[in-house]
Design a protein that fits this description.
With 76 residues, this protein is α+β, with helices and mostly antiparallel strands. The protein is built from one helix and six strands.
């Protein structure tokens, strides 16, 4: 799997076949019916600020607002 980096270059993320299958299933679920992955903001506890809107794969909905999981240790 490749991911963008801060320097706009793609980088390879090594993962097992099982993890790759899970990531592919998440991406398929988000993009079904030709919908793009929604751009959302998340709160970064380390930087203490909101991120720029990005297509986070792991999202949760609180009421009518979608939010990204910042990896703060709280898992939904």
């Amino acid at each position: 799997m490749t991911a963008p980096s801060k320097t706009d270059r793609e980088r390879v993320i090594p993962m097992s076949a099982e993890l790759f299958a899970v990531m592919a299933a998440i991406i398929r679920r988000h993009t079904q019916h030709d919908r793009p992955i929604p751009l959302i903001q998340r709160y970064d506890n380390h930087k203490r600020r909101m991120s720029e809107p990005m297509p986070f794969l792991i999202q949760r909905h609180t009421g009518a607002v979608a939010g990204g999981d910042a990896g703060s240790g709280s898992w939904v």
